[in-house]
Automatic annotation (TrEMBL):
Keywords: Iron, Isoprene biosynthesis, Lyase
EC category name: lyase
GO MF annotation terms: lyase activity
Alphabetized InterPro entries for the sequence: PMDh-L-like_dom (IPR007506)
Originating organism: Methanoculleus sediminis
Record-listed E.C. numbers: 4.2.1.182
Pfam families: AcnX (PF04412)
Its job: Component of a hydro-lyase that catalyzes the dehydration of mevalonate 5-phosphate (MVA5P) to form trans-anhydromevalonate 5-phosphate (tAHMP). Involved in the archaeal mevalonate (MVA) pathway, which provides fundamental precursors for isoprenoid biosynthesis, such as isopentenyl diphosphate (IPP) and dimethylallyl diphosphate (DMAPP).
Protein's recorded name: Phosphomevalonate dehydratase large subunit
Limits of the Phosphomevalonate dehydratase large subunit-like domain: 1-382
Length: 386
């Protein structure tokens, strides 16, 4: 793999041991995937931020590093809200360790805006090279924004943030971004026919790690977010196209004549929806947009919750929509920043959780040890307030 003179000097240790280690990670990754060079990135998003997932050894590794990020970089959700963690029911020992994780990243120059939706915080342009690690963020960046990123692991995203470059392979290369399978969504009139998280949950299992092209659907941006997040969770989809909707499907003409075709049926979608009793309700996986907070505020206006109802959003999004947060929280629901239902130990305390997300439906059983039930946001509000 070609390295320029500055890269060679970093690899030789002239800019410190940490930068040397980070370059070694990138070079090893590039050699594994046959990258011909490194490419500069405009931003990074680093996973491995919750103490629940990285533990004491991950924290020790972070604390051993000594460098600063070379590009704007943010964290994935951590295991608790940085403010009000006591009210959220977080153990003091966990909170202390989580604070140490956050401080370690802060010293490395990573912006402590802990979210799986970094695209709400910074404008990302079509064609930009990124090093993002959270699966739903990667799917959104590639598919909805037309930026270019592979699904990075936590260490490789951190390495890219510190070096400011990432290996040029995979989805950074235009030729590798062509669709590999066509997906048709069966038309139907059922109550969940337009639940994009459910559609993605089914589609991800069918397409695996292939790049799908959807035909005959017209989702908006929040729908696309839900669709991609679910496919990344049940499959390994890092990029998808929607005919006449997503940017590359408008820029390029794809020949789909020889591609496999799969169908997501209404029966498959409806099979995901159950009437199981739940102990708590949680939405915002991925984190809620301002429009989603507005919808929840309207649904909750004048109502009172009867069971724990958590709504997860980036702190920056919640901060810029205080009126919506106020309406939501008057109902007894809580808008929670920095964390999410998947990576917080708080959610491990519930045996059953209702979610509005195909991604959460896939992850909650394994990550939280809880039964997961999916519904629309309207259904989630009805269950939380009944």
């Amino acid at each position: 793999m070609y390295l320029d003179n500055d890269d060679e000097r970093v690899l030789a240790g002239e800019f410190g041991e940490t930068r040397q280690k980070m370059m070694e990670i990138l070079v090893a990754l590039g050699e594994v995937y046959g990258a011909e060079k490194l490419v500069p990135i405009t931003s990074a998003q680093v996973s491995g931020a919750s103490y629940k997932t990285i533990g004491r050894w991950g924290l020790a590794w972070l604390q051993s590093l000594n460098a600063r990020a070379a590009v704007p970089a943010v964290l994935n959700p951590i295991g608790m809200p940085r403010e009000g963690w006591q009210e959220f029911g977080i153990d003091e020992e966990f909170a202390r360790r989580q604070a140490e994780v956050v401080e370690a990243y802060r010293k490395l120059g990573i912006r402590v805006e802990c979210t799986c939706t970094p695209y709400y915080l910074r404008i990302t342009e079509y064609g930009e090279h990124l090093a993002w690690s959270e699966s739903s963020a990667v799917a959104y960046a590639n598919s909805v924004l037309g930026a270019r990123t592979n699904r990075e692991g936590g260490p490789s995203a951190l390495a890219a943030a510190i070096i400011g470059k990432t290996p040029y392979y995979g989805l950074h290369i235009v030729e590798n971004r062509r669709p590999q399978v066509v997906v048709e969504v069966e038309n139907g009139t059922g109550p969940h026919a337009g639940h994009w998280g459910a559609i993605g949950h089914v589609a991800g299992k069918k397409v695996g790690n292939r790049i799908p092209l959807f035909e005959g659907i017209r989702p908006n941006r929040d729908h696309l977010k839900a669709l991609g997040a679910a496919m990344a969770a049940t499959g390994a989809v890092a990029l998808f196209h929607v005919e006449k909707i997503t940017p590359e499907a408008r820029v390029f003409t794809f020949d789909t004549g020889d591609l496999d075709r799969v169908t997501v049926t209404q029966d498959e979608i409806e099979a995901l929806f159950t009437e199981t009793e739940v102990e708590a309700v949680a939405v915002g996986c991925p984190h809620c947009s301002a429009d989603e907070l507005r919808e929840l505020a309207e649904l909750l206006r004048g109502k009172t919750t009867t069971k724990p109802f958590y709504i997860f959003a980036a702190k920056g999004v919640a901060k810029h929509n205080p009126d919506l947060v106020s309406v939501i929280e008057r109902s007894g629901a809580r808008v929670i920043a920095d964390t999410c239902m998947v990576v917080s130990p708080r959610m491990d305390e519930f045996a059953s959780i209702m979610v509005d997300s195909g991604k959460a439906l896939a992850y909650v059983p394994g990550m939280c040890g809880a039964l997961a039930r999916i519904g629309t946001r309207k259904e989630c509000v009805e269950v939380a307030t009944s």
